[in-house]
Design a protein that fits this description.
Elements: H1 25-29, H2 34-45, H3 47-55, H4 60-70, H5 102-109
């Protein structure tokens, strides 16, 4: 046979999800954790907690997943606003050439300087 056969590689299998996901998954796995979820909901309903969330909005990054695990609706305080997007950086002038560092110039041109490719050899 003049053409060798091509071996097909087996696709790697997707890893199994070991932990469940979804709203209230922790309580479904361990019903004895329900009292802790109730305590957390009571703690989040306190006015002092609403004040704390207003002064330290980064706490939302911790509390949202915990509330989701326990199946708790978070308090009605507003989440922190998203940071404003930065303006895109100005593009460099395409006519202006970039200066190469010494190492990049040595890689580009070689130790003897630039030599054009020889055609017809």
């Amino acid at each position: 046979d003049p053409f060798p056969t091509r071996r097909l590689r087996a696709r790697p299998k997707k890893p199994l999800r070991l932990l469940p996901r979804g709203y209230g998954w922790l309580v479904r796995m361990g019903p004895d954790l329900v009292p802790y979820g109730i305590e957390l909901a009571y703690f989040l309903a306190q006015p002092e907690m609403a004040d704390l969330l207003a002064t330290a909005p980064r706490l939302w990054h911790v509390l949202r997943p915990v509330c989701r695990m326990f199946g708790i609706t978070p308090p009605e305080t507003l989440p922190p606003p998203r940071p404003a997007r930065r303006a895109p950086a100005a593009r460099p002038d395409p006519v202006r050439m970039l200066r190469l560092s010494d190492a990049a110039a040595a890689r580009e041109y070689g130790p003897q300087g630039y030599r054009p490719p020889l055609f017809g050899r």
